[in-house]
Structure formats: C-alpha cells, structure tokens
Amino acid sequence: MWPSFPSNILGLALLPLVLASPVQKRARGPWMALDTDFPDPSFVGDPNGGWYAFGTNGNGKTIQVASSPDFQKWTLLNKEALPTLGGWETNVNHWAPDVIRRNDGKYVMYYSGEAKSDPGHHCVGAAISQGTDPSGPYIPQPNPFACDLDNGGAIDPSGFLDKDGTRYVVYKVDGNSIGNGGDCNNSVAPIKPTPIMLQKVEEDGVTPVGSPVQILDRDDSDGPLVEAPNLILHQGIYFLFYSTHCYTDPKYDVRYATATSVAGPYTKTNTELFKTGQFGMTSPGGGTVSGAGDRLLLHSFCQPNVRCTYAANISIQGKTVTVL
Ligand SMILES: *[C@@H]1O[C@H](CO)[C@@H](O)[C@H](O)[C@H]1NC(C)=O
Ligand SMILES: *[C@@H]1O[C@H](CO)[C@@H](O)[C@H](O)[C@H]1NC(C)=O
After folding, report:
1. Which residues are the signal sequence here (predicted)?
2. Given 2.115.10.20, 2.40.10.120, 3.40.50.2300, 3.30.530.20, which CATH number is that of 26-323?
C-alpha cells in the first residue's frame, strides 16, 4: 500500500552521473521531524534561535504545536495553541496554521476554520498570541480574516513580510469544495478555479489593506487544484511554493512559481520539488520555507491516513530551488 522506492537500483544507475558532475551532489533529502499525524506544517523562529512548528488538528488538539532547538530534532508539545475559537467557526476542521512574529514581539496565527454559516466550507481566521510565547495561547479575532464563501471559502493562509516592511497574507480560495465531484470534488467539468490570493495587511498582521489580488490559479497540469501557498523573497526573487492535485492522490506534490514583483505575474516552474517516490515520500505537500530560503517543513503519508512532518535543507540560486 505504501511502497518503498527502489533506491538501490536508481542509486547505482545514477552513480556515474553524480561522480562526473563537479557541483551536483546527491541530495540527502528530508528527515523525519514529527513521527505522528502533523499535517500542513508551518514554522516560526523565536528570538533565542529555537523553532516552533504548527500543524492541522490532530492528537486531540485544535491546532498542534511542536518545538525544536536546532530544526533537526523536533518534539510535539502537549499544548493547545488555540484554546478558544472565534464566534464564526465550528469546533472541527482547524487546518493549515501559519505563524508570523510581529514587530511588537507578539505572534499572529492564521488558520482555516469551518464556517458556522456554511458547514463544509471554511474561512481564514487570525489569532494573536496572548504574550510573547510563540507556542501560544492564541486568541482569535472576533471576525474571520477572509471567507469568500460564494467561491468555496478560504483556506491555507500564510504570512509574508516584504523587504520594505509591508506585510501580506496569501491564501487559497477553496473552489474545489463547490466542485462537481471526482478527485477532491473538482475533476468533473466545469472545473472550478482555486485561485491563490495575496492580501496586504497592516503592521498588526490582521487588518486587511485594500482588496486581495489573485497571483496564481490551477491549470490542467495541476489536477483539481493548487493550494498550500507559501511566499518568500530571496535575493530579489519572490518564490511562491504550493501544492497541486488532491492531497490523497500520489500526484500531490510541492512546486514553486517565481516573480520579480510581489503581486506577480508569477511564472510556474512546474518543478516537482517533492513528489511521491522521491526520498521515500508518499503524496508530499504543504511545504513551508523559512524566510532565508534555507530550510523547509512538509508532510508526507507515513502510514495510511497519517501525515507525518518532515524537515529538509534547501538551497536557492537565482530562480532555482534545490533540495540538499
Ligand atoms: C462537492 O461540491 C458540491 C457543491 O458543488 C457539494 O454539494 C458537495 O457536498 C461537495 N462534495 C464534497 C465531498 O465536498
Ligand atoms: C541540514 O543542515 C544542518 C545545518 O547545516 C546540518 O547539520 C544537517 O546535517 C543537514 N541535514 C541534512 C539531511 O542535509
């Protein structure tokens, strides 16, 4: 059911090529960070050099949190990061949290919650840390940050701090949730769009400035959807990481698009940075990259219905991202 990749056969076949190349070393690839169900991971650094990761509901928590002193070895914390909810959301389906550190030392968590007004569909919520502990607790804002329920809802938020200090949030309009059936409810025509939106926010991280703009959408090579956006800036190039296909499909992956302006246009590289069969992964996705562009967390099925979190070292040169 969960095939292991025949790395021996391929490894031997590639060996002469690897030896002949002066720069290309064979990637060591991701390592297991959290050997438990911890999907859609994101992470934030604390001022003391440690790291905190956040994951979709699981292990009895609404939002899961883990910590690491060095990004290498991770520990799941027995702590509820989001102990109270906004009035707009039900108590199920808290997905894909993302945390940023504000200039005032507090943290903002963006997450997806299910709308009471439209069960089965989701809005993006924002919550602010009570103190300056990145693990929370986080206190939700009374109203959702983004909904767009007419177009399927809003999920998979991720914060971004631009070079000039402007803050943004990217998220996905969950069009496949109002699709016509099939793979992730969106492989039967007419296929619904699943646009990735960019919303400028004030310094507080939670107050929108103007209207969101669309920066990406699915095309037929992406299957039913694009989702799980994560934006970074590296040496003048904006990198938008995202996943394509249905999360249960072996075609789920991590790709990236690049732009020279934050609002785009973004050009899809169509590079599958992580895909099934590579590095022993199964339906990898939900990738989040550090602002420095040197490390990443993502999930992959490690057992049926269990998405473990893996960490990887990456390197960016020009417009190319490489897994180390
Ligand atoms: C698929 O979308 C339709 C609306 O277009 C909705 O009624 C149905 O519940 C959705 N199915 C799933 C599995 O989400
Ligand atoms: C990742 O980078 C860290 C820090 O440079 C290093 O100690 C570690 O060995 C690397 N791990 C892999 C798998 O490349």
Report:
1. 1-20
2. 2.115.10.20
